[in-house]
């Protein structure tokens, strides 16, 4: 379908697609096997100005929005979700500063982030605070002109590799979730270290590790917004970033369709290419239709976010939910279309299927997205009475 991209948007999409084809595809299997962080590819993305897409021009970015970021994420995801996760998680970690940071914080951090000089990560999840973000145990105590952080964050994307971390910690335990605050912590700060690098089913090129805070002292000015705003910062950040996870779903689904179709045209059984069999045709037709529907929803949600609408929670959750469920279904069916070959590491759909699973889990499980959507519907219905 034609989504009526501007000339500049088409250029962004094509540039990301070219990098994916020329730089990512040739090394994706090796990156996956070695669980190697794609730093060289990140350098290429930085040189191409893709890290600055969503950052305002006054801070060295290109001044675009969620929609342009979605276009880039989708193209990278066609090639490798491990690479696109590294890129997209940088935006996730940046949103707290972009949405709630002071002008001084933005001037200090955003230019380097836009230039790709400093990678960012977002520290929310803990052992006892996944879907229940209100269960955070990491604390931040104000002592004079410094906050002292203690606790451990778990499963943090870009952990250990990023130079800047936006971290949610409790400043007032008595207030529960309303006692959470958001902070900026730089790599190399005394008392801030990294735990084990996780070994994962998929997205193996992406680094996932623990963040460990042991009497980690940071300047008072590293507080984002004000004390007690941490939960709101986290939720608004996820509202902005979840559409990017939806774009990942669209990208990996499209990549799987492309591979399955190419294979089906070449594979001969009973004297004919299997693409001529109606059973295969129907599978491909469903895969393509569902992926296009997911793309339309993700694009619409991204444009809705860019419109400046106040409440984008439901739209963002829907885009993430639908597109990532589609991604899991489509990648699984791509393996099925390719049969035994699809199950082998020699072909990329095996990796795509493994990678796709995480999309239904991170940045809020798809069960949580359904809760979010339902709560929004109930809230809207109550207002309409």
Please characterize this protein's 3D structure.
By secondary structure, the protein is of the alpha+beta class. It folds into 3 domains: 7-119, Orthogonal Bundle (Butyryl-Coa Dehydrogenase, subunit A, domain 1), CATH 1.10.540; 121-228, Butyryl-CoA Dehydrogenase, subunit A, domain 2, CATH 2.40.110.10; 231-379, Butyryl-CoA Dehydrogenase, subunit A, domain 3 (Up-down Bundle). 52% of the residues lie in helices and 15% in strands. The chain has 11 helices and 10 strands. The protein has helices spanning 7-24, 28-34, 39-47, 66-79, 81-100, 103-114, 230-266, 278-306, 313-342, 349-356, 366-383, and strands at 120-123, 139-143, 146-157, 164-170, 180-186, 192-197, 208-219, 223-224, 268-269, 272-273. The strands form 3 sheets. Strands 1-4-5-8 form a 4-stranded mixed β-sheet. Strands 2-3-7-6 form a 4-stranded antiparallel β-sheet, with helices on one face. The protein has a two-stranded antiparallel sheet with strand order 9-10. The longest helix is centred in the middle third of the chain and has 37 residues, at 230-266.
